[in-house]
Amino acid sequence: MSEQMHPLAPHHLPFFIPGADGSDTLTVVMGIFLVATVLWVGTLYWKLHSLPERMAHKSQKLQFEIVAVLGLISLFTHMHIFWIAGLLLALIDLPDFGTPIRSIADSVERIADATPSTPADESEVPGGGPDVRAPAKQVVHNHA
């Protein structure tokens, strides 16, 4: 049996029509395009979702950990208000209250250690008279 084409059939078929062997080029191309698009959109979503955390980390904000936790809560609960709160917190520069308070605490400790000695302490200091003070205690405080 000779295989002849029908006289009305086109001699050149477009690429999107499956061939006689069953290979469908359009389906393969669209499958690859779909996988690539899903990966690209997923990457874009993760970059957008981590935006507040990256902003807070780049500017060395004190509230970096809070922004990171808000981002994780937003990710796992799908409540976008936490992401918005993290973004606002990353944009706001909170004042540093810890450093002045630590300085005040250190000054108060130095003042407390430099108090004049009591009469019971004067007997322990060699040559301790009323005008001689005991040296201040050298105490290392761990504030961490």
Mean pLDDT over the residues: 80
Instruction: Summarize the amount of helix as a percent range.
Output: 40-55%
* Sheet/helix structural class: mainly alpha
| Biggest β-sheet strands, sense, barrel | none
Classify the oligomer: single chain
Radius of gyration: 38 Å
> Are there runs of 5+ residues with pLDDT below 50, and where?
none
What is the H/E string? HHHHHH
* Beta fraction: under 5%
| Shape assignment | rod-shaped
Number of helices: 6
CA distance, first residue to last residue: 92 Å
Notes on the protein architecture:
This protein has 144 residues and is mostly helical. It is 55% helix and 0% strand. The protein has six helices and no strands. It is rod-shaped.
SSE layout and pairing:
Blueprint: H1 25-49, H2 51-58, H3 64-77, H4 80-91, H5 98-113, H6 119-122
Helix pairs in contact: 2-3, 2-4, 3-4
Give me some keywords for this one.
mainly alpha
Q: What is the structure about, briefly put?
A:
The chain has six helices and no strands. It is mostly helical and 144 residues long.
